[in-house]
Amino acid sequence: MSALNQSDIAQATQPEAAGGGAQAQGRAAEAQRARYGAVFWVCLAWLCLVAGSAILAPVLPLKGPAAVDPFKRLLGPGAPGYLLGSDELGRDVLSRIIYGSRVSLVVGCVSVLIGLVPGTALGVLTGYLRGRIDVVVMWVVDVILSFPALVLLIAVVAYVGQSLTTVTLILGFLAIPIFTRLSRAQTLAVGEREFVRAARAVGATRWRVMRVEILPNVLPSVLSYALISVGLVIVVEGSLSFLGLSVSAPTPSWGGLIAEGQAYLTQDPWLVVIPSIVMCLTVLALNLAGETLRRRYETTGLRQ
Amino acid sequence: MTSLPRKFVSLLLTLLAVAFLTFMLTSLLPGNPAVALLGQQAITAKAIVAVDAELGLNHPLPLRFALWLGHTLTGNLGYSFVTNSSVSSELASRLPVTIEIILLAMVISLVLAIVGGIISAQRAGRVLDHLLADTSFVLLAVPTFVMALLLILLFAVRSHVFPASGWVPLTQDPFQNLRYAFLPSLALALPQVPVFMRLLRADMITVLNEDFIALARSKGISPARVLLGHAFRLSSFSLVTVAGLQVGFLLGGTVIVENIFALPGIGSLLVQSIYSRDLATVQGVTLFIAAAFVVVNFCVDLIYTVIDPRIRRVSAQPV
Questions:
Q1: Which residues partner with B79 through β-bridges?
Q2: Shortest alpha-carbon distance between residue B174 and chain A (Å)
Q3: What is the ipTM of this complex?
Q4: How far is A59 from chain B (nearest CA, A)?
Q5: Number of Cβ pairs closer than 8 Å across A and B?
Q6: If contacts are CB pairs under 8 Å, which of residues 146-175 in chain B contact chain A?
Q7: Cα–Cα distance for residue pair A79/A279, rounded to 1 Å
Q8: Considering only alpha carbons, which residue of chain A is nearest residue B159?
Q9: Cβ–Cβ contact B120 with A under 8 A
Q10: Of A151, A269, A284, the CB nearest to B289
């Protein structure tokens, strides 16, 4: 979506940001591009922490996410043995959050991969070949995107039944047109550049041009957008499991934890607040990291 | 950027495709509507055949689509599997609530975004601008349902400024109606403020660097008038487009918000009918929301042509 076009903003602010001559401005921009900045590394560290604990969950010294203890109900955060408190059945909130992150991360990564691979391929194909296929594919893309994603998802889940596989597959399918649009736009921008025309002139086949010349220039921005879309998918999956339409009850998920805590909002708000914070921080980290990468590669990838 | 008749044809084709996709949901996806309808009752082959005949599921697929489309075009979205009442009239009675929430959310987010966008464009690169940019990044990461619960916690549980759930119709008591509508609308509005704000900020910074702004300033026109009368007006075009596109997001978000705040709108109808396996209602509501979204986008496209005369003159541009 054009609304997230940070590079326009960066470009527009540049005359004000760098007061010196054009050379100094160029050097400053170069330096900015070369470094990722502390925020990026903090985001990456948080993502590694979340992903690491999700993978290592069975090995970590945690209580089981389903281990009930009727004498340790609704303990506040910081209670001995319960770092983030316990819920209405005396289950450890920290353990449930970590096990819940497995659902979010699996759905997020797998469905983005499902959308990214065919989406990018289609986008590069239609963007470079143009013609009738382009018109037809883009029309189909417009039709699919004309469904509000969450509503379509809810409707399909209603028919097919709720399961991790269903939700992942539908989200992946919905991601295809988004990546098609993105990579098509990038292809259009790259397709007319000198090196592409040069490759054609020396006799490279269209297949080779797409694979060797265009794809490497499209991938960086597609991959950085992929990070942002993992965040988007986590939000959508969270919304679904909040409504009780994603993974079913005994399996903990972030949206499910927040939904369970809703009943205790008055007395024990931490049951909602803690999983919410973890979820928002993860999405924020994905957005910031993706945005940093995108800005970096968009300028280097498409520099004139 | 095509001519009006072509746009209209494309609108009709898109609507037809949307209708077809919605129809396919019931017909081609795994899961038998008859089995779902029978639910806890004894599922026998005979019962399934009976239900199939009652719903017309025993006809071939193209005929079913034609029949269904005919009904839909005459405003008949079928009958609820559970209450046996007309889906269209149920939709019509709930629609005002959803429309009010969406409109209010749109107004709130545009007001916040315009104020924030103008302030940060005017002070681009300064502290306040950075602060607003950081805030919008955080807002972007908060899902609607988390925002809704946070607002309930702050304004309904901690301080009892607004009610946590329920609804009073506008016709019954306008003031109470606004009190009940405010928190849901705010929860829907806040996550999209950054989208509008960043767009407006970028557009305004570009416009503020144009020569005619310098001319207006040098003529001695007050800064406020230059900012609002000259720069803002020209910067608001893409805002209109994106605001239209965001209606889709709002339609999705309203499903969540209506459920959290227990509002009698079409979003809560959708979720309730899923819980009760009322597939006729699910189909009707889905079709309605998707069609509404397509039509809204079409209208936005038209409005855009009217307010930005540049587009009318430019003939088909290769994108």
A1: B86
A2: 28
A3: 0.80
A4: 30
A5: 158
A6: 146, 149-150, 152-153, 157
A7: 22
A8: A266
A9: no
A10: A151
To test the contact with chain B by mutation, choose from A4, A141, A147 the residue with the greatest count of B C-beta atoms within 10 A, namely A147
A276 CB neighbours in chain B (<8 A) are 146, 149-150
Residues in a beta bridge with A86: A92
DSSP letter assigned to residue A193:
S
Of A15, A142, A154, nearest to B274 by CB-CB distance is A154
Domains of chain B: 3-87 (no CATH), 91-316 (1.10.3720.10)
Contact B231, B301 (CB under 8 A): no
Task: Please give chain B's pLDDT, 319 residues, in tens.
Answer: 457 787 788 888 888 888 888 888 766 555 566 666 665 566 677 777 777 766 666 677 778 788 888 888 887 887 877 777 888 888 899 999 999 999 999 999 999 999 999 899 888 888 899 999 888 889 989 999 999 999 998 888 888 888 878 888 878 888 888 888 899 999 999 988 998 998 888 888 888 888 888 888 888 888 888 888 788 877 777 787 788 778 877 888 899 999 999 899 999 998 888 888 777 888 888 888 888 888 888 888 787 777 666 655 444 444 3
Show the tokens assigned to A208: 């080779």
Answer for the pair A168, A114: CB distance below 8 angstroms, yes or no.
yes
Cβ <8 Å between A160 and B31 = yes
Q: Confirm or reject contact between B297 and chain A (CB < 8 A).
A: yes
Q: How many residues does chain B have?
A: 319
Q: Could you tell me if A241 and A259 are in contact, meaning their C-beta atoms sit under 8 angstroms apart?
A: yes
Spell A116-147 as b/e; 16+ CB within 10 A means b: beebbbbbbbbbbeeeeebeebbeebbbbbbb
Alpha-carbon distances of A13 from A16, A168, B184, B214, B228, rounded to whole Å: 6, 40, 35, 17, 20
Pick among B145, B197, B256 to test the A interface (most A CBs inside 10 A): B145
For residue B215, which phi and psi values (nearest 5 degrees)? -60, -50
For B138, the closest chain A residue by CA position comes to: A284
Tell me how far apart the alpha carbons of residues A171 and A186 are, in angstroms, rounded to a whole number: 23
Which residues 6+ apart lie within 8 Å of A222 measured at CB? A116, A120, A179, A182, A183, A186
Q: Judging by beta carbons within 10 Å of its beta carbon (0-12, 13-18, 19+), is residue A204 exposed, middle or buried?
A: middle
Residues 6+ apart with CB under 8 A from B177: B100, B168, B169, B170
| Chain A nearest C-alpha distance from B61 (Å) | 18
Determine the Cα–Cα distance for residues A105 and A112; give it in Å rounded to an integer: 11
